Amino acid sequence: MVKKIDEIEIQAVHDRDLKNILDSLGISPRIDDGSLLCRSCLQPISWDNIGAIYILGEEAILCCNLADCLEFIKGLRENA
Ligand SMILES: [Zn+2]
């Protein structure tokens, strides 16, 4: 069964501007060098497995594309 994932994050991931967004947040270098970890499962986030980005105030929370991790981010949004 395919889980329905929150549309906003997924759009961002597939948007060609994603890298620009991450550049402006200063996050891109940390993806390039593998030092950015999924907030949920703590595996390194790469350009291939980035699943969602959630901006909380001045902090960008990223997670990988595992269904559990996307659910984690979705929970953050709903509880904000
Ligand atoms: Zn994850």
Helix/strand layout:
Blueprint: H1 7-14, H2 18-24, H3 28-32, E1 50-56, E2 59-64, H4 67-79
Antiparallel strand pairs: 1-2
The structure holds zinc ion.
Zinc ion is lined by residues 38, 40-41, 43, 63-64, 66, 69.
Report on the architecture of this protein.
With 80 residues, the chain is α+β, with helices and mostly antiparallel strands. The protein has one domain. The chain contains four helices and two strands, in the order αααββα. It has a two-stranded antiparallel ribbon. Strand 1 (50-56) and strand 2 (59-64) form a beta hairpin. Residues 1-5 have low confidence and may be disordered. Bound molecules: zinc ion.
Provide a brief overview of the structure.
The protein is 41% helix and 16% strand.
Classify the helix fraction into a percent range.
40-55%
Radius of gyration equals 12 Å
Number of DSSP helical runs = 4
Q: Output the strand order for the largest sheet.
A: 1-2
What's the β-strand tally? 2
Q: Which outline best applies?
A: globular
**What hetero molecules are bound to the protein chains?**
zinc ion
